[in-house]
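Title: Comparing notes on inverse folding

I've been comparing how different people in this forum approach sequence design from structure. To keep things fair, I'm posting one structure and asking everyone to reply with a full sequence. Here's the target:
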């Protein structure tokens, strides 16, 4: 297991139509480090965003897909998309909202 600090775990927020609808239920979505565990994600969110209390963390991993790139000299070259991990973080009732998502 990699030694991850809390500021290395949360990579960036995930902003889609579905994630914007989930904000009403205090559920936030983030791209996280692929080796991060649920407890590490919970601690990272509580430390990075003051006044938040996490009640539940759900994670899902998207596996890489095969893709082909076109190159002028070499024709099609095989490749893969990146492996990513998403985290859906639900805050406890009475917890303050994450300011990063406010006003969107």
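Reply #1:
Here's my take.
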């Amino acid at each position: 297991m990699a030694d991850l600090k809390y500021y290395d775990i949360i990579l960036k927020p995930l902003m889609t139509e579905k994630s914007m609808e989930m904000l009403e239920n205090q559920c936030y979505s983030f791209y996280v480090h692929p080796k991060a565990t649920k407890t590490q994600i919970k601690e990272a969110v509580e430390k990075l965003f003051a006044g938040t209390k996490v009640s539940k963390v759900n994670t899902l991993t998207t596996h890489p897909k095969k893709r082909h790139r076109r190159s002028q000299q070499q024709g099609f070259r095989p490749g893969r998309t990146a492996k990513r991990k998403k985290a859906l973080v639900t805050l406890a009732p009475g917890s303050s909202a994450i300011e990063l998502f406010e006003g969107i």
